[in-house]
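pipeline stage [seq->struct] | target=Aminotransferase | organism=Yoonia maricola | residues=400
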Amino acid sequence: MTFLSATLDRVKPSPTIAVTTKAAELKAAGRDVIGLGAGEPDFDTPQNIKDAAVAAIAAGKTKYTAVDGIPELKEAICAKFSRDNDLPYEPSQVTVGTGGKQVLYNAFMATLNAGDEVIIPAPYWVSYPDMVLLAGGTPVTVEASLEANFKITAAQLEAAITPQTKWFLFNSPSNPTGAGYSWSELKELTDVLLRHPHVWIMTDDMYEHLAYGNFKFCTPAQVEPQLYDRTLTVNGVSKAYAMTGWRIGYAAGPERLIKAMRKVQSQSTSNPCSVSQHAAVEALNGTQDFLAPNNTLFERRRDLVVSMLNKAPGIVCPQPEGAFYVYPSIAGCIGKTSAAGTVIDNDEVFATALLEETGVAVVFGAAFGLSPNFRVSYATSDAALKEACERIIMFCEGLT
């Protein structure tokens, strides 16, 4: 009899967390390290949200709450979906978890059986396939190439659907590419899904408010209301509201699915932090005035990083529509040798050599299901981004 669960053999630790940890270790050892691996804004949670948390503590709102969210927060979430997405939900259709990650995981645990398939466009957030595997399902990846602007086509989606398909997992704007689907592009996908009534749709809309230029965010059930009854629309307060550590994610969908997810949460974590929930009420109901200036800041950083990385020999960096990531290709670097003598066989070797030789921490593309690439998070200062990009350019110029 083995001690550890065989299920763990199916999954791997999060590469993004591993990169962030390694960068922190090198910094602690005295190395000059610029971390571009973490997916969290570098500015503080807005003051009105922090004040709401302090007020909740002062009022003694520090006890257990309902398993999947206080009534005030569920009402605020319903108002948000109505205001921002034209989606009508009742509080009984809403669940609140300890971050969007738990909400996604709860949905998979509540619905997947052995043999059930989940279609996941690649590049994907590193945790998607492993959550499916932990829940007993089978991830089916559909590759979205750089040439296609990291977006899958209707034909690709159609070809991936089988009688075993239970979910289509959709993320726009994307982590790791920042690619965002327009209304017409998403309508092509929802038209396919209308023809397959056994397939449910799970959306990860965490980067909804991080959209730049002329790109306008939209979500599947908004684009095609006929899919409303088989769509779980997932969101949270972590990115746009700079509340990553507060750990509040939420979703709305059919009541029978929400009940099943509540059952999973009742036997795992129970309620999210009570204080964080009250802060999230203020985030959703309070002023949204900071969103626009924050977006302007992120858009400037995006343009800086894209322009500089495209000066690096062997790198091609497309301009994304949203989020705070770029996903450059290093196809032109493969097979070359670094100044320190490392042969760049793949993107993991590239990222390791880049960190060891220049002190710039990025996440290698294989972790996201599409190589040879790497992910840069530009949710840090302009000065740090400029210095990091200069080091990347020098590293690539030194390849022979």
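stage status: PASS
auto-comment: The mean pLDDT is 96. The first strand starts at residue 34 and ends at 35.
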